[in-house]
Amino acid sequence: VQIVESGGGLVQPGGALTLSCAASGFDFSRYVMSWYRQAPGKEREVVAVIGSRGRNVDYSAPAKGRFTASRDNTKNMVYLQMRNLVVEDTAVYYCNAVHSHGGNYWGKGTLVTVSS
Fold first, then answer.
1. What DSSP designation does 79 have?
2. Measured between alpha carbons, how far is 33 from 96 in angstroms, rounded to an integer?
3. CA–CA distance from 97 to each of 15, 44, 114 (Å)?
């Protein structure tokens, strides 16, 4: 199993960034995919949860209206489009795959830094 996040970097407040997550080694289309983040000194928190077919997406309060999460089951990819970024969005962003019958996989994360 491999989950690899990419797309992080330094962005100014008000800017935008798109993260990608490449998954392999499991039956991707059967898994719920999620984005989490962990800011320095804080606990990991959920950002967005994408149903297995991609039709249902739930967002955390900070993400709602600014972030758009999606998946492409033909490519085993998950995306997180972020806009109007604020300093508080600075965190390591993780991609997670979970199945109700077992299987809970994490990537190593990608760092997003929002700073002027």
1. E
2. 6
3. 28, 15, 26
